[in-house]
Write a structure and sequence with these properties.
It comes from Brassica cretica. Keywords: Metal-binding, Zinc, Zinc-finger. Pfam families: zf-FLZ. The protein is an alpha+beta fold. The chain is 31% helix and 11% strand. Strands 1-2 form a two-stranded antiparallel sheet. 7% of the residues are buried.
C-alpha cells in the first residue's frame, strides 16, 4: 500500500500518522486516528489508553526515585548539604 504521507528524503523513518505508535498497525485515511501528546497516533482507544497508562507508571517511578534520592540528603526533615567548598 502506498503511503498517503510524504516521507522525509534524508530520513527514511515513516511519518507518525502511518502506523499506530503502540502496535504498529497501519493507519488508513478512512479510519479514526486517536492522538496523544500531539505527535503519537494510535489505531484505537485501547492502544492509546495503554500508552497513557504506561507513561503514568514511568512518571510515577521517576517521581518515586527522585523523592527517595532527595530523602537521602536530609536528616530529621532538614536538608543536609553534601557539596564540598574549596576556598583559596
Amino acid at each position: 500500500m502506498d503511503s498517503y504521507y510524504v516521507r522525509f528524503v534524508e530520513n527514511d523513518e515513516p511519518h507518525f500518522l502511518e502506523s499506530c505508535s503502540l502496535c504498529r498497525k497501519t493507519l488508513s485515511l478512512n479510519s479514526d486516528i486517536f492522538m496523544y501528546r500531539g505527535d503519537m497516533a494510535f489505531c484505537s482507544q485501547e492502544c492509546r489508553q495503554e500508552q497513557i497508562e504506561s507513561d503514568e507508571k514511568k512518571a510515577k517511578r521517576w517521581r518515586k526515585a527522585s523523592s527517595s534520592s532527595k530523602s537521602k540528603n536530609s536528616v530529621a526533615g532538614k536538608s543536609v548539604r553534601s557539596e564540598t567548598l574549596v576556598v583559596s
